[in-house]
Amino acid sequence: MRFGLLFGMQLPRPWGPDAESRLFHEVLDQIELADRLGFDNVWCPEHHFLEEYSHLSASEVFLGAVSQRTRTIRIGHAVMLMPPAFNPTARVAERIATLDILSGGRVEFGTGESTTPTELLGFGIERATKRDQWAEAVDAAARMFVEEPFAGYDGEYVSMPVRNVLPKPVQRPHPPMWMACGNRDAIRLAAHRGLGALNFSFFGPAETRKWVDTYYEGIASEECVPAGFAVNAQIAATIPMMCHRDEATAVDRAVDGIQFFNFGLGYYGGFGSPSPGRTDVWEVFQRERAERGMDRAAFGRLGGPLGNPARGAIGTPEQIRELLRRHEEAGLDQAIFLVQGGGMRHEDVCESLELFATEVMPEFKDRHDKAELRKAERLRPAVDAALARREPARTADPGYRVLPRSKH
């Protein structure tokens, strides 16, 4: 099992004059520490206008800084929003390839479409068509990575003439591609498109087994026609994490931040009606958390094994090891730890990462490489069959020319 970290730049009110700057630089320090400690991946979302929940709207810029502060940790978009009004598709391909070059081939390319009215309506994107927009953009971006020149695209949402989209990524045919998933239908779609499944819902080991089985059944099926030119057969799940030798201390340090993450997700994605620049989401959370099942009692009693999805991996090293063994046995490829939420303190996050890396991580690292080799061997026939179903890269018309300015 690999271990990743998710940073969304949550910043509850009230805000001081340097609050955003301090947060961004603290997270850079946390990622640099994670790189030294041997974590496998760092993941950053792209969100717009989601006050307090996520202030990370230019993740490609932030991850460029990460690439220069780290050496081995893989650098993931979780996710880049693909409808063209968010990000024109050629610009997506250019940014991903540039980041891959700057990082020395460490990029993971997560894709998504957004779920919040605040973001979708802010960019004029219709909810009814966002999945189709995502699908076209993912297909076109994959072609831009490998076709030289890109042979053009004439879709309903993505349209572009023949151009040589530059630069090309270090990883060939392109960085591993992923899809944001929030339910089993999305997991199945990711599998049918040969994409890694990035799950952002919290669930326990029993549910992990169901999602893993659904995913790998899809990878092995004849319905698997890759969106890219490689199959990224991996499933990852987001798990809250705070590691401390004293269980009560771990809970105290994490409970407000993790529950605020969940509340903010529901507030912007479902039940909330924010007034831009005016609504104090942290104050609403404090007022409504109990009635929405987000008081401290929701974390369960102390002293027992972990398994409550809302609690995640918040506890002692022994508790976290036992929980992760069950996720590993269920077939999870990567645990992505949510370690920055609400008002969680920088010092507490760093202490937690260090303790986890020292007392939990080594056991799983020792088993990972052999398990990956066995999985690759088992999946090779299905992956080869899937790639054979994928339309190959195209060759542009050699007679195509860009008209001179005088002919426009």
TrEMBL record:
What Pfam families does the record tag this protein with? Answer: Bac_luciferase
The name this protein goes by in its record: DivO protein
- Kindly give the SUPFAM superfamilies that the UniProt entry links to this protein: Bacterial luciferase-like
Key words of the record: Monooxygenase, Oxidoreductase
Domain Luciferase-like residues, every copy: 20-334
Which sequence ranges are marked TM in the entry?
none
Lineage of the species this protein comes from: Bacteria, Bacillati, Actinomycetota, Actinomycetes, Kitasatosporales
MF terms in GO: monooxygenase activity; oxidoreductase activity, acting on paired donors, with incorporation or reduction of molecular oxygen
**Does the record bear Oxidoreductase in its keywords?**
yes
Cite the InterPro entries for this sequence: Bact_Lucif_Oxidored (IPR050766), Luciferase-like_dom (IPR011251), Luciferase-like_sf (IPR036661)
Spell out the residue ranges making up region: Disordered. 389-408
GO CC field = cytosol
- Which residue positions does the secretion signal occupy? none
